[in-house]
Amino acid sequence: MKNVPMVTVYIMGDAYKVPNDCTIVGAMEYAGLQLTTGVGCREGFCGACATLYREKGDYKLQSGLACQTVVTDGMYIAQIPFVPAEKPLYRLEELKPTVDTIKEFYPILFCCVACNTCTKSCPQDIQVMDYVQALIRGDIKRAAELSFDCIRCGLCALRCPAEIVQYNAAILARRLTGKYLLPESPDLVARVKEVREGKYGAELDELVKMDEKTLSKRYYAREIKIEP
Amino acid sequence: MQLPYYPGCTLKNHAKHFEDSAIAAMERLDMPLVEMEDWVCCGTVFSMSSDDLMLQVASIRNLVRAEHQNLSELIVLCSMCYNTLRRASDFILSDPENLDKVRKFMYLEEKPFDGTVEILHLLSVLRDRIGWEELGRKVVRPLANLKVGGYYGCLLVRPEKYAIDDFEAPTIIEDLLGALGATASPYPYRLECCGAYQTVTNKDVTVQRTYELLNSARNAGCEAIVTSCPLCAFNLDQRQRETIEQFPDFDPMPVFYFTELMALAFGANWDPEWTKLHFVNPEPILRDKGLI
Ligand code: SF4
Ligand code: SF4
Ligand code: FES
User: Fold this and answer.
1) Once rounded to an integer, what is the mean pLDDT over residues B142-170?
2) Is A160 in the pocket of ligand 1 (CB under 6 A)?
3) pTM more than 0.90
4) Who's near B180: CB < 8 A, 6+ residues apart?
5) Could you tell me if A130 lies within 8 Å of chain B, comparing CB atoms?
6) Domain assignment of residue B131, yes or no
7) What is the pLDDT of residues B57-74, one digit of tens each?
8) B67 plus B153 within the same structural domain
9) Do B90 and B167 reside in the same domain of the chain?
10) Structural domains in chain B (count)
11) Domain A6-79, classified CATH 3.10.20.30, yes or no
């Protein structure tokens, strides 16, 4: 085995020596911890692996995705398995894309003090405060654009002094935008029609019946066409 | 000459007619308003408690961003935003320790807060950069025979340091109305508080205020009043719904933003969308005076 330099990290307070090039998820597994929750795709897409950490000599409490953040020597790490967040229920068809809708379902947004802590904590580099502020003034489309890359890790909500659940409000913004504020996409309408008419039924049935190995082979051999 | 301006949240929704009419009026004066980028809420109300630094952050963030956008001044339309931004700025700049804390806390902004942006209310810009006489010359649709009162409330004149005119006997709104060709009648209650946020928890206080204030204006001969604050407008206009219910002798009175009358006087047309944002329909009186 080649000689990898090791660093010391503190996972939930206990010291472990781990290779210096591993991610926080990698470090936890190297340390022998079995992760049953708080991790998913391992590729920075699912948002399941919210983490808080402090680096040696830095006063800042930092946050990130455990699967994307490489360890440093002396790092203190806490893994967040789940973020409790309020999520009101609504029927999109009954809503209007206005500031009053935002007020009705997320009145807490209006308590934002513009501290920008949410932006500081977002691993996706989203201007979280700015989308909250856009919602406060009823600019729902802008909020949808700004929050587009959100992966719902919940870190913004965990650090907000005003107890706001930014990412759930952002979903409402994107839904309202998709339904009311953007022009209808003809391709989507055509595709939904095809699905309804059962055009993909046989293919789907075939996939459902497939054993795991063949399915995995098929998945990795798939072709992704991006049409201009 | 372009004027960089800060709209504030309410001008983007319930007071859209305030923003629209200001834009229309200022375009006709060849001083177009240009909205600053990436602004946030002003913080809504200046926090009086000196250890509540967090509540000043919103105001300061707007000012840092304006500095970063190389703006040397920011024109504000809403009295509340004007008052909050100016006081927060002075408050932080007056104490090196607070300044240091706020700068550290805002390390993600492109530059540290220096306090170089001058915050001006649109009314003072009209007076000091154009002047009433010159404004009068630009009027194409004089508001002749319209008897209207200026309503200052608290935030344009208090505390004294931030008053846009004499804090006890201001004339700036009356002067503007006069320049537009209207008859401006000062009335005793024009500097009284509208009840402000009592409207949320103690609605009857604002209903009582509305009754007294508008009657004071009517007794001085006013047919309408103008304001520059969306919260005052809410209390004095929308709360007339309850005022009518509670006071059988009360006669409704339209409440304008000063910019709506400016827009009309400088030749812009009344937008029916503006009417929808009023509780007391202002169209009858405008029609009566031949303004629409
Ligand atoms: S906006 Fe919030 S939930 Fe979304 S990615 Fe950023 S921190 Fe995570
Ligand atoms: S952390 Fe909360 S209060 Fe601070 S800017 Fe973000 S949403 Fe607003
Ligand atoms: S595990 Fe999915 S984003 Fe980290």
Assistant:
1) 97
2) no
3) no
4) B135, B136, B139, B142, B143, B261, B262, B265
5) yes
6) no
7) 999 999 999 999 999 999
8) no
9) no
10) 2
11) yes
